Amino acid sequence: MIFTGFHPNIYKKDVHTALSFLFLPWNWFKLKKGNNTFKVENWLQNYFTVKYAITFDSGRTALQKAIEATNIRYGDEVLVQAYTCLVVSNAINWAGGKPIYVDINENFNMNVEDLKNKITEKSKIIIIQHTFGKLADLEKIIQVAKEHNLIVIEDCAHTIGTKYKGKLAGTWGDIGMFSFGTDKVISSSRGGALITNHEKLAEKIMELNKKLPESTTKTILQNLCNFPIFYIGKALYDFLYLGKIALAVAQKIGLTGKIIYKKEKACHKLNFYPAKYPNALAKILLNQFTKLAEMNNHRQEISAIYDKILQADKIKKPQLLQNEILLRYTILIDNPQKFIQIAKKKRIILGNWYDSVIAPADKYLNMPGTGYQEGNCPKAEYLAKKSLNLPINKDITYTQAKMIAELINNNL
Ligand SMILES: Cc1ncc(COP(=O)(O)O)c(C=O)c1O
After folding, report:
1. pLDDT tens-digit series, residues 84-108
2. Could you tell me the keywords of this UniProt record (predicted)?
């Protein structure tokens, strides 16, 4: 079985670490506090060569606290692209900001002309999202931000390691935000961080972080359980449906953590976050740091295979800049649902990020609660109906990538 998402970054060592926290009693005292969180922050400081790195329980908390740290006042406007995750709009709303949605280009990133049109005297922040790891138009957006005295937060939930003009994504804005969620570049199941060189912003972020509660024991245990359960569940996924059933049961009885909860989709707050990043998950992230370069290289190699084989006349492929590293290889295609179904029959689960301007789009999505109104961003609405993600994670072999590309070509 080939997966696009579904915890694609798990290594055996991560499973061992998770099991050691779950089953070794002397580790139970180190679930929440310990020096791993500081080690993660140090790693980020060194990797990005920044003065400050502060961890959080998730990217969504990190983003909320980044916005709060700018001393945003109720009703101040935060410019953010449409074609994003619902937790982004929740983070803006919960920080007291008002999301203003900016339309996108065919590279799934913010359209600078629409950005200029949407700036008002209430604008305070621009969030630059590097969707699927494709770099946004950094220089132009930052120029607009400077002209209007706006703070720039770079949402790097989909990228760690891509450089533009020799400078890492995440270090271009005033604050860089990262996610270590299940389907991200590196994962500890849940986790997030902010980086900055601004002393004042950093002080405020650290002050906000200090006030946060520890992550709950239940949340930590659920996210640790994700590692052995997904590792085994995926391996046995279609062996008499054992893995599929095990994963569904684990989810149903609350043994595993979820990426996004029903309540969040209804734009309601949950009681276990915002919170601090737990020591146990930080330990897993330290393992993942050692695999970052390997996973990113692999993503580039698999992207190159798709790029070479996919027929360019009927689909639109990502136009990659030199050294760009994608998280998912996303194409524009008529009727992506058709291809999702065709692939499923061949035991390939393709990805649907983002099938809505604010995703995930299911019956629980409270679109009015996000502040998005139909017609705000027509291009984003159109692209959401055309995008299809192909997997490039570490488990995808060159042969599988060729097979996926040919499957798509043959059904165009
Ligand atoms: C673009 C973007 N920003 C931020 C986040 C939030 O990250 P997290 O899941 O760690 O809260 C996500 C999550 O999927 C995302 O896709």
Report:
1. 999 999 999 999 999 999 999 999 9
2. Pyridoxal phosphate
Q: Where in the chain is the domain with CATH 3.40.640.10?
A: 13-211
What tokens does 189 get?
């199941």
Selected from 3.40.640.10, 3.40.50.300, 3.30.70.100, 3.40.50.10580, the CATH number assigned to the domain covering 13-211 reads 3.40.640.10
Distance from the alpha carbon of residue 154 to the mean position of ligand 1, in angstroms: 12
What string of H, E and C letters represents the secondary structure of 354-403? CCCCEECCCCCCCHHHHCCCCCCCHHHHHHHCCEEEECCCCCCCHHHHHH
pLDDT in tens, 273-306: 999 999 999 999 999 999 999 999 999 999 999 9
Positions marked catalytic:
184
Tell me which residue of 201, 19, 58 sits closest to 125, measured CA to CA.
201
Question: In the CATH hierarchy, which fold is given to the domain comprising 292-410?
Answer: Aspartate Aminotransferase, domain 1 (3.90.1150)
pLDDT digits (tens, 9 = 90+) for 116-170: 999 999 999 999 999 999 999 999 999 999 999 999 999 999 999 999 999 999 9
Tell the residue nearest (CA) to atom 8 of ligand 1.
Answer: 59
Arithmetic mean of pLDDT over the chain: 97
Please state whether the predicted TM-score (pTM) of the whole model is above 0.90.
Answer: yes
CA distance 3 to 391: 7
Cα within 13 Å of Cα(282), Cβ side:
25
Residue among 87, 131, 155, 370 whose CB has most ligand 1 atoms within 8 A, to mutate = 87
Query: Where does the chain hold its CATH 3.90.1150.10 domain(s)?
Result: 292-410
**CB burial string 280-318: b at 16+ within 10 A, e below:** bbbbbbebbeebbeebbebbeebbebbeeebeeeebbbb
